[in-house]
C-alpha cells in the first residue's frame, strides 16, 4: 500500500502515528503507576482498565498509521474528537487526552472561573459523583490535530482519485 501514496502522505501518517503511540504509552504508564500506588484492589481496578482501553486505542491508531492503513485516518479522527472537549456536569465527568494537552475552559461550580491546564496524557472519568461540579474545557492541541487529519484525509482522497483516473487512461 506504500506504493500508492506519496512520501509526503506517508510521512504525515507516520508522524501522527508516532504522536498517538507516544501519548497512549504515557497514558498507560500513568495508569500503571496509579495502580501500583493504590493499595487495594476494588472497583477502581475496573476503572483503571477502562482508562487503559482509551490509551490502548490511541496506540492502536498510531500502529495503523505506521502500517499505512486507510482506517487509521478515520480511527485517529475519532481518537482526537474524544479529546477535544472535556466536561463535568450532573455527576458525570469525562476528560481524556492521549499526548500533549493544553486546555482552557470555564468552571461554573461555585462561581464563573476561567481554567487553564497543560500536561501529558490524562483521563478523568467519574459517574454519579460531584453533582455540583459544572465544567467545560477545550483542548487546543486536539483541535489542530483534527484539522490536520481532515486535510490529510482530503490529500489521501485526491491521491486515490489520481490513481483511479490514471488507471482509466491505461485501459
Secondary structure category: alpha+beta
Low-confidence stretches: none
Strand portion? 15-25%
- Rounded to the nearest angstrom, the radius of gyration is 19 Å
Major β-sheet profile: 4 strands, antiparallel
Number of helical regions: 4
Order of helices and strands: HHHEEEEH
The domain count comes to: 1
Average pLDDT value?
89
Q: Helical content, roughly?
A: 55-70%
Number of strands: 4
**So what's the overall shape?**
elongated
- Note the gap between the termini: 22 Å
Secondary-structure blueprint:
Elements: H1 7-37, H2 43-66, H3 71-84, E1 85-89, E2 92-107, E3 113-127, E4 135-139, H4 142-170
Antiparallel strand pairs: 1-2, 1-4, 2-3, 2-4
Helix pairs in contact: 1-2, 2-3, 3-4
Walk me through this protein's architecture.
The protein has one domain (2-170). Helix content is 57%, strand content 24%. The protein is built from four helices and four strands. The chain has helices spanning 7-37, 43-66, 71-84, 142-170; strands at residues 85-89, 92-107, 113-127, 135-139. Strands 1, 2, 3 and 4 form a four-stranded antiparallel sheet that branches. A hairpin with a 2-residue loop joins strand 1 (85-89) and strand 2. The longest helix is centred in the N-terminal third of the chain and has 31 residues, at 7-37. It is elongated.
Amino acid at each position: 500500500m506504500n506504493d500508492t501514496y506519496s512520501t509526503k502522505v506517508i510521512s504525515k501518517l507516520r508522524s501522527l502515528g508516532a504522536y498517538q503511540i507516544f501519548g497512549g504509552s504515557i497514558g498507560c504508564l500513568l495508569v500503571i503507576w496509579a495502580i501500583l500506588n493504590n493499595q487495594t484492589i476494588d472497583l477502581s481496578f475496573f476503572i483503571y482498565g477502562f482508562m487503559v482501553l482509551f490509551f490502548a486505542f490511541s496506540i492502536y491508531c498510531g500502529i495503523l498509521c505506521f502500517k499505512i492503513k486507510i482506517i487509521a485516518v478515520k480511527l485517529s479522527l475519532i481518537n482526537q474528537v474524544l479529546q477535544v472537549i472535556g466536561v463535568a456536569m450532573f455527576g458525570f465527568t469525562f476528560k481524556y487526552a492521549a499526548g500533549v494537552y493544553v486546555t482552557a475552559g470555564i468552571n461554573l461550580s461555585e462561581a464563573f472561573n476561567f481554567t487553564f491546564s497543560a500536561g501529558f496524557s490524562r483521563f478523568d472519568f467519574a459517574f454519579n459523583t460531584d453533582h455540583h461540579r459544572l465544567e467545560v474545557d477545550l483542548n487546543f492541541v486536539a483541535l489542530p490535530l483534527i484539522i490536520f487529519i481532515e486535510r490529510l484525509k482530503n490529500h489521501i482522497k485526491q491521491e486515490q482519485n489520481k490513481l483511479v483516473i490514471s488507471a482509466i487512461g491505461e485501459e
